Amino acid sequence: MRIFIHRGQSTFGPYRLEDVLHELSNGSLKPTDMATYDGGDNRFVPLAVVPGVAGTISTQPVAPRSRGRLGCGGWVALIFLIALVTGIVGSLLTDDKEAATREQTQRRRTPHEFGWAMGRQLLKSATTDSGSGGMVIFAQGCRAENPTVKKYTNAEYQQFLNGLMDAYIEWRRNGYVVPDTEIKDRAPAPAPTAAARVAPRYARPRPPYPNEARLAHATGTGVCHVVFGADGRVSSAEMTRSTGASVLDLSTMDFVSANWTGEPGTKDNFTFVYNLP
To answer: Residues with Cβ < 8 Å from 121, sequence gap 6 or more?
Structure first.
C-alpha cells in the first residue's frame, strides 16, 4: 500500500507502511499529518487513521512537565528570606532616620547647651575627679571625632567648652565622691603661733594661668567672692562675675580655695585678670 503525505500545498511520497511507521517513531511524521492511501478514495485523512497505522500509535496522554512548584518547606524558606531582607533594609532605614534626627537635634542646640548636655552624660556615672584638664581633653576629642563639634568655629568651640565646664562645676557642687588627695589638701590648718598672732601674714598668691585655658585660648576678667572660715582658710569661693571662660572660673575657685588664707570670719571680692601668656 502506498501512502502520500500532504502538508500545505506540498505532497510527499509515496511511502511504504514500514517507512511511515519508522518516520512516526523518530518524529519526522506526526499522527496529525494529512494523508491519502491506496484504496482510500483519495480522501484526506489524519495519518493516525490510515489502515496499518491506526492502533500502532500510543494514545496515552503525555504527562505535563513539572514546573518546579515549591513545597511547604520551599515556601517557608522563601518567606523567611523575604522577611530577612525586609528586616535588614528596614533596620538600615531606621538607623539612618535616627542618625538624621540626632544630628538635627544637636544642630538645634547652641554650642553651650550641647557641651553642657555632653558633660552631664559624661559625668553621670563618674566616681572620681579627673579635673578640668580631663574635660579639656574630652572636648579636644569631640572636636576631632564628633560630626557636630567638628563643624564649630573657634568661637562656637569655646562656647561648647564652657558648657562642658559648667556641667563639671555643677557636678562638683552636687556632691561627687571626693578623692583622698582633696580631703588631705583641705585639712584644717595648724593653730597659729604667737608670732603669727602678733603680725598675721595671709597667703594670697596669684592663681596661675592654667594649661587647660592655654589649650582653649581662653582669656577674661572675673570677680571671685571669697569667705574665710574660723581657721583662716577659705570656706567658700564663688565667681560673682564670670571671666567668660568656665575653665578660668573653675581654676580660680580651686586655686583660691586650696592656697589662700585670710582674717578669720571675713569675706571679700577679688578681681582676677587672665591674658594669654
So the answer is: none
Helix axes 246-259, 154-173, angle to 10 degrees: 40
In the sheet with 234-241, reading across from the earlier edge strand, the strands are 234-241, 220-228, 267-274
Mark whether 255 and 194 lie in a shared domain: yes
What pLDDT digit, counting tens, does each position of 13-52 carry?
Answer: 788 888 888 888 888 888 888 888 877 777 788 878 888 7
Q: Which of 150, 173, 196 is the last residue of a domain?
A: 173
| Cα–Cα distance list, 228 to 99, 208, 233 (Å) | 51, 21, 5
What is the mean pLDDT of the segment spanning 119-140? 77
Is 142 within the bounds of a domain?
A: yes
Asked if 230 and 264 touch (Cβ cutoff 8 Å), the reply is yes
Say whether both 199 and 163 belong to one domain: no
Alpha helix locations (H) across the chain? 17-26, 72-108, 111-123, 131-145, 154-173, 180-185, 194-198, 211-216, 246-259
Structural domain count, the chain: 3
Query: What number is the average pLDDT over the span 149-159?
Result: 88
pLDDT tens for residues 92-114?
666 666 766 666 655 567 888 88
The strand pairing partners of 234, in sequence order, are: 228
67 found inside a domain: no
pLDDT at 69: 61
Q: Which one-letter DSSP state was computed for residue 57? A: S
Strand partners, 7: 10
> What digits encode the pLDDT tens for the residues 172-190?
776 554 444 443 444 454 5
The residue segments making up the domain with residue 44 are 3-49
Same domain, 257 and 228: yes
125 and 193 together in one domain: no
For residues 10 and 34, membership in a common domain is answered with: yes
